[in-house]
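User: Can you help me understand a structure? I only have the sequence.
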Amino acid sequence: MLAKAKIKYFRVAPRKVGLVLRLIKGKTVEEAGYILDSVNKSAAAPIRKVLDSAFANLNHSRQDKILAKDVIVSCAKADVGPMLMRFRAATMGRATAIRHRTAHIIIELDKAVVKAEKAVKTEKKENKKTTKKAESK
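Assistant: Let's start by predicting it. Here is the structure, written out as tokens:
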């Protein structure tokens, strides 16, 4: 984890926020920004602010600035916050609860794995498989 940002007591249900967060998890900051700009959900704009805040936290005290395409969203989650309880009238003189749910949104950024590093890892795995097959014969 290189940087982290969070928003607390956000007045949207965590399930609704999670729908948007699943779209950006594992994407670069640049791609995630494009996705959040085009998603038609009420949670997209505040999530974009948290993402921008995390990226700003990353570059705050650095001499060499990191580009948005070199950083991925490693963790994007919505935890449950406290519920605001309100009551409304129901039949036969009773009252029913209305639960206004809140969420805590957490976004963590990490370095993007370079494709060359991935290729080296897959080559090592393939070499291990071929040596195991040769030993078994």
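Now, to help you interpret it: The chain has one domain: 3-136. The two ends are 44 Å apart (CA to CA). Let me know which part you'd like to focus on.
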